[in-house]
Amino acid sequence: MTTILERYRALHPRSAELHKQAERSFPNGVTHDLRHFAPFPIYVDHALGARKWDVDGNEIIDYMMGHGALLLGHAHPTLVRAVTRQIARGTHYGASTELEMEWAGWISKLVPSAQKVRFHSSGTEATMMAVRLARAYTGRNKLVRFALNFHGWNDSVVGYVLPEETLPRSPGVPPAYLGEQIVLPQNDIGALAVTLGEEKDVAAVIVEPTGASFSTVPIDPEFLAFMRERTAREGVVLIFDEVVTGFRVGPGGAQEHFGVKPDLTTLGKILAGGLPGAAIAGRADILDCIEFRRDAEWNLHGRVAHQGTFNANPLSAAAGVAMLETISDGKAQAHAEEMAKRLCRGANRIMRKLGVKGCAYTFSSMFHMSIGVDCPEPADGWEWRWDGAPGASVPMTSPKATSAFRQAMLNSGGGDFMRTGGLTSAVHDEKDIDETLAALEPALADMRQESSL
Ligand SMILES: Cc1ncc(COP(=O)(O)O)c(C=O)c1O
Questions:
Q1: Domain covering 77-327 in this structure, CATH number
Q2: pLDDT-derived band at 383, boundaries 50, 70, 90
Q3: Rg, Å, the chain Cα set
Q4: Most-buried pick from 63, 205, 234, 391 (CB within 10 A)?
Q5: Nearest alpha-carbon partner for 83 in 420, 317, 432, 268
Q6: Which residue has its alpha carbon closest to ligand 1 atom 12?
Q7: Cα of 441 from ligand 1 centre, angstroms
Q8: What is the CATH number of domain 4-74+331-449?
Q9: pTM for the full predicted model
Q10: Which of 64, 122, 124 to mutate to test the pocket of ligand 1 (most atoms within 8 A of CB)?
């Protein structure tokens, strides 16, 4: 009887070999923290639709979906056409284009709060700009963030992950930056009320509007509504980080879904159709802090500077326009959501049948599984209904079980997961989901056999 790890090694000899070489070039042999995976990550050769193929010839159902960028799956013909056409016309003109206006036009049309737009190359840049603009606009310094909410890796938002942490998670960030962060428990209306009431130097509140880590910890809609009301009252800029949820939760993102309009919104991933690209959108009076004026003093000392070689580059713009146009009627999102619900219903059924503790739940097409831990029974087999406990978190799968789960699912043909969750797309179909569910049962059985559960 081979172990999960032995099977993983046997199925991926070429990936193991490449990883050995990669370790000479990159720390841990990888180029993103999420790809750090013991004993080695898989190396992918090509991808199409909902599937990708690794260098060992394994066909894999993909739930990573470009870290959430690929709502239309891999190599969607519409996007391939748009990018192919554009690359032959040039990828950078060092000039303004009609295409960037068309791209911004889609954002303004779809995102309820988008009065003005500015493009960037990554979500990390967008959140950095959002915080900087909020500080410039309000003349205040502090940033309120919530536990486990992720906003990229710039100095303004990185550091403390939980309110009770005394040490930041990333050295290299000057203490002055860390001192300007206030980390609160998510969904704790009382804590937010006290902070905004007592602390008069708060420039902005930033939140993942469906909850921490693309809704791993689901948001309480009342918390969002309170946040909107109280930030407006205190003159604090409310930033929705919709880098993942934008255009995914629906064409207008989480703000449309919840009917809450932030002052600023950060966008990325789906926005650029699978190519690098991001944006900040929102209130014109705040974004206009970037504008040059007929006022030398303002231009020197008042305005927020903003450069960026690849801002609104024509290739990303072409992909972005094609993507936003295609998903603007909401059908892609609705299908992706149905697939995530099917996956969760099936996974919950299987866990109950095997007597494995845990639950699978989804918000829109972002699904999560807590495995080997006690958690509430999801409503309708897929929805985690917030129970109102302020600041409560959800039980998470242990690191040991997470690692075993990912290996076991790859071994059994269940797919490539983002930890124990992932994202579905417009091109996942019932067959993909049912194949994953068929693989889940033996994967969980193997995990139990090896006491990973
Ligand atoms: C909510 C959120 N904000 C910001 C970012 C950072 O985006 P990027 O990886 O493009 O820098 C991410 C990345 O996953 C994210 O999930």
A1: 3.40.640.10
A2: confident
A3: 22
A4: 205
A5: 317
A6: 152
A7: 32
A8: 3.90.1150.10
A9: 0.97
A10: 124
